[in-house]
Amino acid sequence: MSSPAATAPQGWPVAIGTAAERAGVSPRMVRHYEALGLLAGVARTGSGYRQYTEADVHTLRFIRRSRDLGFSMEEIATLLGLWQDKRRASAHVKQIAQAHIDDLAQRIAAMQAMQRTLQSLVGCCQGDERPDCPILDDLAAAHDSAAAAPGRFKKDSILPPDSLPSTHKTL
After folding, report:
1. Which of 117, 143, 121 lies closest to 134, judged by CA?
2. Which of 8, 15, 64, 81 has the fewest CB atoms lying closer than 10 Å?
3. Structural domain tally of the chain?
4. What is the pLDDT of residues 87-106, one digit of tens each?
5. Are residues 118 and 73 in the same domain?
6. What is the pLDDT of residues 75-88, one digit of tens each?
């Protein structure tokens, strides 16, 4: 049997802590989204406390779900504008989502390349008392700077097992 409080309608508007909890984000992130202009026109009490409506919480959930899917804040702002525009063309939304999928595929491929490189290096490492270490040797080696840039990887920066010095090959 549920308590009367559990069946009572949720009161609106609510304070930032309640809005954050209902949206599944922290109060700090609510303030951040508001500062970025993703959540506009939040009402305030006479003493300056923010008051969030059900629509504000719905917007916060939209933002949270977009972040969960890895969209950038810029993409979220665009998607939010499209969501709020009832005359939007879904083709634009699909284009943004497809571009994000393409970006994710590139990042996944880069991470898989890193994984293969690390697996190769770990496979060549004796992991014993000797100081020889192909992992440290690779980290210390001069690599193409474009390959080392964050988020940018070249397939030819991956070292196959045969390219390692013979002192590092497994027996």
Report:
1. 121
2. 8
3. 2
4. 999 999 999 999 999 999 99
5. no
6. 999 999 999 999 99
User: Hey, how many other C-beta atoms are within 10 angstroms of the C-beta on 124?
Assistant: 21
For residue 19, pLDDT over 90 is answered with yes
pTM of the model: 0.73
66 neighbors 79 (Cβ within 8 angstroms) = yes
Query: What is the number of other CB atoms lying within 10 angstroms of the CB of residue 110?
Result: 15
- Is residue 117 within 8 A of residue 159, CB to CB? The reply is yes
CA distances from 167 to 117, 162, 171 (A): 18, 11, 10
Q: Please answer whether residues 82 and 88 qualify as being in contact, where contact means their C-beta atoms are separated by less than 8 angstroms.
A: yes
Domain boundary among 88, 122, 143: 88
Residue 34 structure tokens:
């508001």
Residue 48 Rama label (left phi>0; alpha psi -120 to 50; beta): left
Residue that the structure tokens 């890193």 belong to: 114
Specify the DSSP element, H or E, that contains 170: none
Helix (H, G, I), strand (E, B), or coil: what is residue 23?
A: helix
- Give the angle subtended at the CA of 131 by the CAs of 125 and 134, to the nearest 5°: 35
